[in-house]
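Internal ticket #5521
Category: modeling
Description: The requester needs a full-assembly model to guide mutagenesis choices. All entity lines are attached below as received. Residue total reported by intake: 609.
Assigned to: D.W.
Attached entities:
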Amino acid sequence: MFYHFIFILLFMLGLYTILVQDNLIKLVIGLTIMEAAIFLWVIATNYRGGIIPILQPGVIEADVVNPIPHALILTGIVIGASTTALLLTLVIEINKFATVITLDVLKGLRD
Amino acid sequence: MELNILLLILIPLVTAFLIPLVDIINVKIRRFVIISSVLAEVLVSLFIIISQYNLFLAGKLDLRYYLGGWSSMLGITLALDSLSLIFSILISFSLALIIIYSIGFIGHHEGKYYALIFLILAAMQGTVLTGDIFNLHIFIELITITSAALVAFKRNREGIEATLKYIIYGVIGGLFFLVAVFLIYFNLGSLNIGIIASNFAQINIKMKTTIIALFLTSILIKMGIFPFHFWLPKAHSVCPSSVSALLSGVLLKIYLYVFIRLFWDIFGFGLLKEVGLDYFMIYLALFSSIIGHILALQADDVKKMLAYSSIGHVGMIVGVLLLNTPTALYGGLLHTISHLLLKTTLFLTVGYLIQYTNGHHVADFHGVAYRNPGIFIAFTLGILGMIGIPPLPGFYSKWYIVQAFIESGFVLAGVLVIGGSIISLFYYLRFIYRGYSLLDYEKKIKPQRVGVVLSAFYRERIVTDVSYVMTSLVVFSGLFIWLFKQPLMVVVWALIGG
């Protein structure tokens, strides 16, 4: 139950950052916090002790660690890294056209 | 036979990574690689239709490919049933035409463009064909990232700004989807769509409501239904026209597919009724439709107007699908196909007309019809189809939609759909009127048909020919609309029965 609360707290913190912050870099950080919240939640809630998950004769399935959440999270981290990279590239591109990198630039209020 | 399903994803994926290699060796052979890959994709699709057609009509189409040979409990499966067959065919044919059009249309950074567009083709086919809900999320995120890179393709200020908005909302939508996927995994211990569908009733009702709310939010953000529509028009109008055709014509339909797959196949439609969201969703979608049409009325930019009208049409399709009667589902699916054909045609022809007008504004369209009559007639046909003039496909699908609303007792909703069509009459006909009107000084000199506007003759030929092919597809699908009846009814019965 503790992990679920931490997850909701972190996820909402990230969402709050996106909604409130003006700086584009902080927006990207907010997205990263949301992603990290999901990853930590899945790994923490699915962990149970056990041996290395290699299916071979003599190994009972109940003894091994469940490998699927870890595989899913690895894939998720790759996606998260690529979206963050793309977002930061876009922030750099915005900085070529405008002197500041705040949301006002997107609204056309400042150059 | 099952290997063909894998080939549909694998061919564009390999091509996407082959193109940078080909560019290093010799840039001139890139075009042949692209065309042969597109043809291979279309041939595989055709082969699948021809070999499976009898099974498909019997409603028993269920091909599976087990990746790595693992069973569906452990591994990832690719599955092809009647719904995904329809969408897979639509994707491969429309993307083939769009990619061939791009050979003439895109003049700069072509290597990057084709790598991205083949990746998006692979991701779309993957979304439609996968039988694993986490894989569905992966492919949707792949679509979001690659399409964001394509939206920013012109690298001007508006493009970058629109892309930032697009990708931030896309990623937030994707994260909600991911949370819902993990909630399903915690409760059922499986990610396979078939296993989830058969076990979903076991989950308790509060958890079900949470999962549905998360999926619905995610899909509504991705489709651009009313409270989340503001990123769509900018993102769909700043990119090159071939990309706009892809995003507005094809990509929105992929999210419609995901919507149908989730809420009919996996959860079962009864659940949405049980939670009490179906009437709310119908009115939300219809409100979104009217908002889209009204915003299109005030847009003077031609591409922005087309993007707003996409909001209107997608809202209409979502609204009618949620009625869950045979006529409603048939009308919704038919309108999906006709909107795909018409919107792609419109964006492709507009992409060529913009070369003549030097601007997107409605005032720039003065006399375009005299300078290029052929493409302007294609544009006009697309517009008439969108409004719903009888021999063109838009009329039949709107007819079924209105009929479905009135049969289910939603007379107001039927009136709203017809009202949307009447509003669209006003904002579309401006462009035809301007196109055929001349300024005073232009009347003295007879306007000449301008020759080559794109950089080389073969480029112009490719662009105009693909536009004519799309237009003839629109006209033929309107004249032979009864051909769609039997295949679509198979899908409808599969959705209602299952």
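Resolution: model delivered.
Comment from assignee: The longest helix of chain A spans residues 68-97.
Ticket closed.
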